[in-house]
Amino acid sequence: MPEFDYRIRDHQGTRRAGTIQASNRVAAITQLRQRGWIIVAIDERQAANARAIRWEWPVRALQVELALQQMAVTVRSGMTLSAAIDLLRQQSERQAIGRVWQAVLNRLQAGVSLSQALQSHRCFPEFVVQLIRVGEQTGQLAPVIDRCVETMRRRRLAQQELTSAAIYPVLVILLAMVATTYMVTYLIPRLELYLVSLGKQLPTMTLQLLGTTHWLRDNAVWLATAVAAVAAALVAVWYWPAGRLRLDQVALKTPVLGKMICLRESASFSRITSMLLSSGITLAESLSSVSALLGNRYLGQLVREGREKILRGGQLADALDRRVGFSPVLISMIRVGEQTGDLTRVLSEATDYHEVQYAGLARRIQAAATPALILTIGGVVGYVYVAFFVALFAGGAAG
Predict the structure, then answer these.
(1) CATH, domain range 61-153
(2) 45 DSSP assignment
(3) Residue ranges of the domains in the chain?
(4) Strand order in 15-21's β-sheet?
């Protein structure tokens, strides 16, 4: 028979926890309520071996976004919150998100608020939890969920802009590496055999190409080892908190990549902060949520430091104004918003400005990278064939 772990309050209000056997969850709840207890949480206990061998993909942000959008529609249509979440559970295509909604539904039925039920799952961003808490307090849950969905959608589109701008250059570079490997290991050695069989003096250009090819073949193992060592070191630094902080700071100083990161994070900061402020959340609480949502750890640390300065009576613009940090335009607009007392509206306008600048920069980078990579790869391949034909013609002329 299934077992259920429960947490309750007894007649004296004392918290208690234990395990109960029942045919299903409803029967377990009925047994506990018959004892006069107030149920805080109840979950079915799973076998240890089942937890050990089960593996699944984590819940993706897009799945959460679409589920919240459906929740807003169903709640707006008059469906109860429990029924809406149960519908989400039934329609979940993946087991991971289905189990999340089942756990949320269980806690709702135990008397826990929706924001508290979502807070225990890492797949829901902090700003979503805070906004839903505000929606529960004001009775405007559907409009608040719509704001969450819109914010998640805009964050996803910004990430897609960055991915689309980088994917084509990466693919071209990979193809170039494949082509270079083919020429070094197969094509050029066979051309070398043919040129040597002519018995003629090879031109300097051809000798340089052959010398480079020999060096690459002789040192291929060392080069591969060095690349693997550098990659392993970067991964180790990435997962080391202090190292990740330093890498993110260095990334902001990179000429092109740094500007893209700055614009994207500035847009994210202004968008989420303005949304939280417009929902009635204090600036200090908003900054606490935003600092955990920024992809760049260095900028997240700046926001946390700025929050501490604000709590001591400082200004947000002065706290965030660093040589390496957010966009100077964002700092200037925040300063104007603080002076006029209309920070929420100013941040909303800053979001639109930075998103437009970010999208334009991504398009320009993609447009410039395409011909540059084509010229580079074409130059390498052309050099190989020119060196071969120069030697061929020289051998023919000498003969």
Answers:
(1) 1.20.81.30
(2) P
(3) 3-53, 61-153, 161-280+320-399
(4) 15-21, 3-9, 38-44
